[in-house]
Design brief:
Layout (H helix, E strand, L loop, with lengths): L5 H12 L5 H21 L5 H4 E8 L11 H14 L4 E10 L2 E11 L13 E13 L2 E9 L1 H7 L10
Parallel strand pairs: 1-5
Antiparallel strand pairs: 2-3, 3-4, 4-5
């Protein structure tokens, strides 16, 4: 009779007894959820966000101080208001990295300022800005978002900076 080496037996038993997808499969699934989120935002398909974003999502950003997002409804409203400023806005993912329950992104946002941006009037100028984001997923939905970009770069591209001098 032939015996099965212990390592092979332990490996086979370990895979048979695992209680869910592997860490690698979960990481890849998380990255795909985030890709679908960016695609839905680009397509203005905010109804799709219901299956991609947690109802109690929280968004953090020093770049938009004073903007509070603590629910899916607030997140959708934030996106709608952003489209008033940049109605043709598109995001392109350059890098996506995942570990555990977090997905990190390096993206480019392009758009034309056809609406006001806070105190800054519309200029009709285009902007291209790189930005960084981290998303934490829970139960296959985005539960928390951190996003940061260089506001000075945006203001300069749009002609709002340096400020006009009084003569």
């Amino acid at each position: 009779m032939r015996t099965i080496p212990r390592l092979v037996c332990a490996t086979v038993l370990g895979s048979l007894l695992s209680c869910g997808p592997s860490a690698e499969a979960t990481t890849e699934a998380n990255k795909e959820i985030v890709r679908r989120l960016i695609a839905a935002i680009n397509a203005r398909d905010f109804d799709q966000l219901d299956e991609l974003v947690a109802p109690d999502v929280v968004r953090h950003s020093q770049a938009t101080a004073g903007v509070e997002v603590r629910t899916l409804g607030q997140f959708k409203e934030f996106l709608r208001q952003d489209l008033v400023t940049f109605p043709d806005a598109q995001q392109e993912i350059h890098t996506i990295i995942a570990e555990g329950d977090k997905v990190a992104l390096y993206l480019t946002l392009t758009g034309t300022q056809n609406g006001p941006a806070g105190p800054f009037p519309a200029t009709g100028k285009q902007v291209e800005v790189k930005f960084l984001g981290i998303m934490r997923l829970e139960n296959a939905k985005v539960a928390e978002i951190w996003v940061e970009w260089d506001n000075l770069s945006i203001l300069t591209q749009l002609g709002h900076y340096p400020p006009a001098t009084a003569e």
